[in-house]
Every structure is written in C-alpha cells, then in structure tokens.
Specification:
Shape: globular
Helix content: 40-55%
Strand order of the largest sheet: 3-2-1-4-5-7-6
Structural class: alpha/beta
Order of helices and strands: HHEHEHEEHEHHEHHE
Number of strands: 7
Strand content: 15-25%
CATH topology of one domain: Rossmann fold
Amino acid sequence: MDLGMDMWKYFGITHTNHTIMNPMSLDKAGKLVELLQLTDGGRVLDVACGKAEFLCLIAERYDVTGTGIELSPHTISAARQNVEARNLGNRIELLHTDGGTYAPDKIGRLDLVSCIGASWVYQGHAGTLKALMKMARPGGLVLVGEPFWRGEPDPEYLKLTDTTPDMCGSHIGNLKTGEELGLTFLYSLVSNQDDWDHYEGLQWQAAERYAVDRPDDPDVEVLLRVIRRNRDAYLSWGRDCLGWAMYLFRVS
C-alpha cells in the first residue's frame, strides 16, 4: 500500500483513539469472547494483535496464556501499555515481529489462533485460514476477521480507494472458504452501520486533530489528503457496499 508516507505512522495516527482496530464494537467483542468457551490452561495466539485488546479480554475472562504478534512499531507500544495497565504481563507475551514468519514452539497445540483484519499477512483469507488451522490443536478454534461486499462496489469507489472487486468476497463466501478447507463453521459476528461509522469516524477525527496539533510535520499534507479521500469514498459508496464480520471455526 503506497500511501505517500510511512504506512505504520499513518495507521498509528488514524487509529490513535481506537480500542479495537477494526469495525467491531467493544461490546460485541466481549460477547464473542464469552462464546469461545476456552478451558483453563489453554494457549492463545493472536496474529496482528493491534493494541492487544482482544487478548486482554480473553485473559480477563479465562485462565489462559496468550501471545500477540504485531509488526507496527507504534501499535506494539500501545499494546504493551494496555497489557501492563491491566496487570496481564505474566500471562500475555507480546512480540514485535512479522506474523507471517512466526512459528509457535508447539505447532498444532494452540487452543485458539486468530488473525483479525490482517489477512494480508498470509496473502488472503484462504491463506490465513490454512496457516492458522495448522497451529491449532484438533478441536481448537480459528478466528478471523474479514471484510465482505454487501453489494456490487461502484467503479468510482474502487477507483478512489485504489482497490479491485476481488479485494474481498461475499459473507457466505468467507464462510464457505473455511468449510472447503475442512474447518467446521461455528459462528459469525457481523458489524452494523454504527460499528462502521464509529470505526471510520474515529480515523477522520484523529487525523484532523493531529494536523492541528503538529502543523510542522511534513507528512500532514499527505495524511489529510488520504484520510479525506477515504472519508469521501466511505460516505459516498463504502458505507453501502462494504461489510465486516468475524468468523469462528473449529479444527477437525
């Protein structure tokens, strides 16, 4: 992704005020955690863990240990602060590395493996499911977060966001991809319009405030140009055609 500025800096700025770095409310994420039904002593891995909020929610609900992988130097710092503030450092390990090259010490032994909103790590949705299911034990869980088209994307939307129709599939297509790989589908949690509006709106606000607070930053011009372009694309077309869901599967 060529933003015209450092990608990690851009996402660090625009996601300053996000607790969960995807279009899902904290309340819904908490409900999903309840449905995981993890057993005591379990091991969890979250690839591209963001600010480690999901890992923290899991560790606060279950007696498990977790590992979070995050490549962004800005976000891993926020993740460490989050884990420390909640006194979970003895149960959550955070690694600043590329999830695509990470291999757990006990392959095929994890109780839950997740990658939420970062399937680029494994070259797409199918590649992500294939990679995660190898790390989970038989009967273990695989959780992914993926966008999907609610309807046919307008050509102007694709042009403005520099994307193509194959950026994502359909909601049922995301589910069927897992089943075709031999996974058992258990549950999906779908974002609504409020979830999306909040996720996108926080980005616009953070960028505009950053520009006012740091007018001498040489990246401000690019930051505002990109965020305003994305804002207009979302409000004009994306709000109607783009969806988001988290998909929970069980390994056979």
